[in-house]
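Rotation project, supervised by the postdoc (A.L.). Task for the rotation student: set up a whole-complex structure prediction and record inputs and outputs verbatim in this book. Inputs entered:
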Amino acid sequence: MENGKENFKLKILIADDEPGMRDGAARCLKNLSFKETDFPEKISFDIFLAETGEAALREINDKKPDIVLLDYKLPDMNGLEVLQNCDSSKFLTVVVTAFASLEVAIAATRKGAFDFLAKPFSPEELRESVKKAAKNIFMLRKVRQLQEEKSRIRFEFVSVLAHELKSPLAAIEGYLRLIDERVKGDELKSYDSMVKRSVERIISMRKLINDILDLTRLESGKKKRVIEKIDLAETALYVYEGLSMKAAERKIKFEMICPEKILFEADRGEMETLFSNLLSNAVKYNKEGGEIKLNIAKENGFIKVICADTGIGISEEDQKRLFGEFVRIKNEHTRDIEGSGLGLSILKKIAGLYGGEVKLSSKYEEGSVFSVTLKEKILSETSANIAR
Amino acid sequence: MKEKGKKILIAEDDGDLMEQMDIYLTGLGYEVLKAYNQKEAEKIISEKDFDAAVLDLMMENPDSGFILSHKIKKSFPKKPVIIVTSVTKETGFYFDKSQDKNNWIKADLIIQKELRFEQLKKELEKLLGN
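Outputs recorded:
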């Protein structure tokens, strides 16, 4: 089977001793192709022929077909004997016979036949039967692919997560060892910076764990959402208040441009997380004495949130990687800034829940503008998705 | 102290580990030249004098440490170079100086993270001939 983005080819073996039947069936299936709803692949067939049981077994062994169209009565053996003499679990069998009897049908099904086709049959009946078998194989492979993909992603996530949790621990352990060895003598004060730094790493580790909980809750859809009319202007100000101390320390000015009230039906926690991620980034990655401008507006059925900072900015190359999980941009400006590398993933996920998206325009060393759109009145739809 | 005045170049992009090695080695009497990335380290190599180098392998490039050790050994073949890495834990690649096939690595020693400070002290003393 050739399995590409557009083509999904299945090998089909037609085992029949009547040349007319063989060729007729081959002609009928040669140009057959179809698609499954929601999948891009075109399913079609490569056809092989066999006129005896012996030849069928050989072809099964060599060509490894996905579907075998098996005449029950072959000159050297019957269809059941063919199935007995090979690993019939590797393909789906459609048993074809002129001697349609219930016994044969039952016996064939017991031997693992997938479908049963009584002679004479119309080309349409043959195509339907083969399509049914092909769909079955196609869907099974899709399910398997998805499962593999899922376990690969989970494995990747867990290994990166383990690494992210290990590094603060290593840092804290390092400081504790130095303190333990009294490298700076007996004066307690000499150790202040080490203790302070350890506490900072612990705080950021806790933030990482909270972010992971946020993210997994959002992804699993298990988080209980309470949808109510909330005022986004008020929510944004409330979130900024929590950050204002840090902003004041670095003399960062904050300006919000927004109607007095901007009502939006949403989950309060999600909106708080959204503003918290946007604004804390704007504070963290700003320059001393910089500015943050937060603009919230309603526009053509969308809420548009634009957060602009005069910070360190992000180079074009880094912008491409930025929205990945655990991605943190490493450069001289970000060296001392703590972060889980999950904030933007969370932001994107929340925007997605509200039928919107996150866009970024940024210039290295000049500042970044994050624009988030949220669709009004999409909630019934997304809640249904989440409940699923 | 015997180590007094000996200068160690440290190239390490983890700020905490840098801070810790600085505190530890300064406590032993060494002078530490800090480079937080490959670029800063290259500048120090070409402009400043030092007695030994401790290099993190993966910085802005996955092989920053190898590149830096090459540069050092090209100009100062006798200058001791230690590469510190967690690459084995993270990728499964194992680099060991005692194997012949790893002759291309121009470092005197490769130490695996998590780094023990006492080990660093011992190895530096050995390589500097204290």
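Student's summary: Strands of chain B lie at 7-11, 31-35, 52-56, 81-85, 109-112.
Supervisor addendum: The CA atoms of residues 4 and 29 of chain B lie 5 Å apart.
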